[in-house]
Design a protein that fits this description.
- This protein is of the alpha/beta class and 309 residues long.
- It has one domain: Rossmann fold (3-Layer(aba) Sandwich).
- It contains nine helices and ten strands.
- The protein is globular and about 60 Å long.
Length: 309
Amino acid sequence: MPAHPRAVKPLPEWAVKGLAYKKDPPPEAVLAPISLRNRYYTARTNLLLVREFGVTNIIESDLYLPEGKKGPFPVLMVLPVSAGSRYPLENFFARGFSKNAFAVLIVHRERERNPTSSEEINGIFRRALIDCSRIIDWVETRSELDSKRIGLMGTSLGGIKGAALVATEPRLKAAVLGLCGGDLAKIISHSTDGQWKSTEAKPRGIFGKRNVYLAKNHLTQKEFEEKLKREVVWSPDRLASSVETEKAFLVLGGLDTVVPFETGWQLRKAMGKPRTKVLVSGHYTAALDVYGIRRDALGFFNEKLGTPR
């Protein structure tokens, strides 16, 4: 589906204030030895050290650089799904993109990723947005990276975060957002994540943890959703009117109940109906088209960032 651009609204003042940070001193990086090299790319871990309020915050990512090609390279930031530790999906995308002369930064998940309150959810999302901006600050200091051509790919939770980041970070020129939604309250209160393996004895995923919370706090599902709507401010749907429609490409699962399809379709409308691909799949069965998704994403990045040399 093609894009239908509309006027872009300024970022809300509360978001501007909430994301303000001091850029001096600039972030420092510790590049680990190369862990993988082949004829297409090299890969290594990148530890970004950000000193704030007397504390050093470590932002970890994996940097893929094309091998045998001359930079500066356009850069793609990849935001991961919520589960796992080895980033297999993100590495799959990174390999394909770096073979086509893009530098890739896989941004690692935060260490604390099991929030138990609205305040913690807000904190995780706000921190993620600032951390991604700090990574872009670092990209601007690197001669081998082209800071004028930065794109983003996020899937599931990474796509949800990416939907907020493309609204708040003007240095992003393109974003492919997969299996995402905008209304965090609706996603959290209706997601079936973990339903098939969750029991009363062992609650799993959003589904199991939500049921424990509802029982403990004597809330109905509707009351829970209304509570989240009041309290969770860093929800992508509240920022979507500040997205430049042409920058975004959505990939949604038409049968998705983990990040309910309805929330992705509502996000599309709020973003001004960007280019969208709807898969005949659920959340996890979308993996059956992973090669097609990577191909379409690469085409979009080539179009928006320019085909790398």
